[in-house]
Amino acid sequence: MLAALKSLRPRQWTKNVVLFAGLAFSGTATVQSMVMASFGAFLAFCLGSSAIYLVNDILDRERDRLHPVKRNRPIAAGDLSIGTAWVMAFALFGISLGIASQIGNMWWALAGYFALQALYTPWLKHIVLLDVFSIAAGFSLRVLAGVWAVDAPLSPWLVACTVQLALFLALCKRRAEAANLSPEELEGGNTGQRPILAEYAGQGTDMMVGVMAASTLVTYTLYTLLPASVLASGNPELASRAGEPGMVFTVPFVFYGVLRYLHLVYGKGQGERPERIATMDLPMVLTGIGFVAVAGSVIYF
Questions:
Q1: C-alpha 177: how far from chain center
Q2: Pairing with 250, which of 82, 139, 185, 188 sits 20 to 30 Å away (CA)?
Q3: Hey, what's the torsion of the CAs at 212, 167, 106, 125, to 10 degrees?
Q4: Beta carbons within 8 Å of 282's beta carbon, 6+ residues apart
């Protein structure tokens, strides 16, 4: 049971928190039915993503055994049988789709996520740049699921910020992974676990990280300054407050978060596990709490 639970990677469920962006920025977080719909969408994506992790671990078990950390995953280590893992994966696929089918149009987002992963796991994750764009697309589909779950109008600013932030985090992850490669692996282009990582070694990746960090900060700052920035959904009940400049006070939190993340990646050699930084690094946790507090006060009070 412990091996099965570990294979679901519950720590990775933090990625699905972006689903609640649609609920929060639509101004419907005080409506019980909308809150329940968002939590249902969150649960569906958690179960669905765990199914993807199981399939990924099954297909990559031989490569994982060559990795100093991933070799401890239950399937690679032999603690969870292949047959049991397949049964769990198919069960989670079915349950997640069943839940999603009861929540508005979010079913399409989850189905799109599964289709994306069907391409990413065997193919896209081995192609430089397309792998990080696939990760960004996955986050965008999560945001779409959250918006469709509460039947809110889609904000292009929300999508733009999500895509750019996801690309920034994905490039930082690749940069951190490439930094741990040995000179022999870099020279031969064979990492043993994922050959594509050698493509992300060097100054090119550093430049891409800088570009995405800058564009994320500029896009979010413009989002807070434009007249319709407070309520991305254009909720008619709160439209009269859309011109308030309050959201600009969230900018320092976003700037600090991005700069803190860059410090951890370049100064502390972290970045391989973004979810760990988001949940274990105290300054990042406090920054997130501060952002939520300020944004919530502007939108709801």
A1: 17
A2: 139
A3: 160
A4: none
